[in-house]
Amino acid sequence: xxxxxxxxxxxxxxxxxxxxxxxxxxxxxxxxxxxxxxxxxxxxxxxxxxxxxxxxxxxxxxxxxxxxxxxxxxxxxxxxxxxxxxxxxxxxxxxxxxxxxxxxxxxxxxxxxxxxxxxxxxxxxxxxxxxxxxxxxxxxxxxxxxxxxxxxxxxxxxxxxx
Length: 162
Hints:
Low-confidence stretches: 141-149, 151-162
Distance between the termini: 49 Å
Structural class: mainly beta
Radius of gyration: 16 Å
Largest sheet: 5 strands, antiparallel
Mean pLDDT: 77
Order of helices and strands: EEEEEEEEEEEE
Strand order of the largest sheet: 5-6-7-8-12
Number of helices: 0
Shape: globular
Strand content: 35-45%
Helix content: under 10%
């Protein structure tokens, strides 16, 4: 390393975000153009899970849910497009939003777990083998519980609220 400092600049990409208590932030290439986009999700608000496309940072709605802190990026089906896994604050639902062929459209929301405690915080690792997918999640009180989820991309979708 040459000793040079990396310079950052502050840029406001949305002065009026869709949600409030925005506590989910992910960086990924949503639309497959080779550039990083930004996903933001919040606890409250209509259409509170959105992505912003580089370089214009235009907002695109993914869907809605009262989201808890954290989320993860997974490609859980064979198309290779990255999806979002995040949990609800007010119930024990863990969701997977499936990225669409046109990611500017509302994404398909699927409940992939509803058996462990509410307040999902962390999701990690996904692997697939012969159309079966495993993801791991942890819930909050009364204990941290890990669960291996067997998913099938052939399951019937639950559309996000429009």
